[in-house]
Amino acid sequence: MSVNPIPEPIKSRRLRGLDALRGLAALAVVLYHYTTIYESHFGSYPSRPLFSLPHGHFGVELFFLISGFVILGTIERTSDLKRFAIARFARLYPTYLVCALISLAALYTCNLNFSPLTAKAVAINATMLSSVAGTPLIDPSYWTLSYEVLFYAGAGVLYSVLGSRLRLELPCLAWLACSFAGHLLPWFADHHRLHVLLNVEYANLFVLGMMLHYISENVQTPLTIPVLCVALLMTLFPPEFNRGNMSQPIYVTMIASFSTAIWLVSRTGGKFLDIRPLVFFGEISYSLYLVHQVVGFAVIRALLRLGAPTNTAIISTICLVVGLACLLRIFVEKPAERWIKNLGKRVAPRAAADRYRVAVSA
Q1: Average pLDDT over residues 2-26
Q2: Please, are residues 131 and 147 in contact by the beta-carbon 8 Å criterion?
Q3: I want to staple 56 with a disulfide (CB 3.0 to 4.6 A). Which of 28, 144, 184, 309 is the partner?
Q4: How many C-beta atoms surround the C-beta of residue 81 within 10 A?
């Protein structure tokens, strides 16, 4: 079987439709936490919210699909593993650190009844790998970050090994096989770290996203569609968190619908989703996701204690965390990303010059 290398480079374009999908996913998670999960921590609201979104947590599945879709384009725009690592660090870590500190302050200031955090747990949280270590999280939403970081690390390492002929169908099949074994063998469940490191629960979503990217760029091989089908069939084994929340056929249909939406965005340029409010929420989705839960719960509880009606407390909190996420995007996320990337660009030529001088002097 011949393997076609990815054209150099895959065309780079900003798909605003993907931003809109991110925005929808972020809003779904926020509304799920405020209308459903809040009561599991702090008791029933004084009155029922105007609406609830008990399945809003499936926005996480959409996030993982989009991450799988965009990673290959990100890799192809990066010249080497070091630059890829710097770019991912710049994109993720500064905003995470600031949001984690804000959430930590809210956690202790407002005496929220989450798992107690030791100094060691806080230090592990700083690595973004708390789910691997199994330590309590500063914010319960942060459990997804370990899966994202490990996925980026694995993709970057494969790129460094395979280089310009990077094709992931065979590695993805191996990954799906490990995931399948993890669902069937109790031994995996008893080894938490290995379970997370292999991403047993969500591997198929990242794989679906990557195969959709190949298809959307018209660079698929004879293996691409079969791998995509295997990944879709793996949704018959939903993550443990979602078992019982939704029947298997509906879960499979939902993931297939998410995948179709991503494919349509890629094929049409996303014009049907190029709706400014949704794109805006997509642009702030990372900061919003990181800062909404602990801070939002603290604000809702404070407003309710002051006598605010349930819907007023929820809507006011949504407005506050959206504003906070917007400020984080403007003053932390974008400036830090630019500064770190520019620093990396300045360091690389200096290092190359130093190596040249050493070679000449030798």
Answers
A1: 68
A2: yes
A3: 28
A4: 16
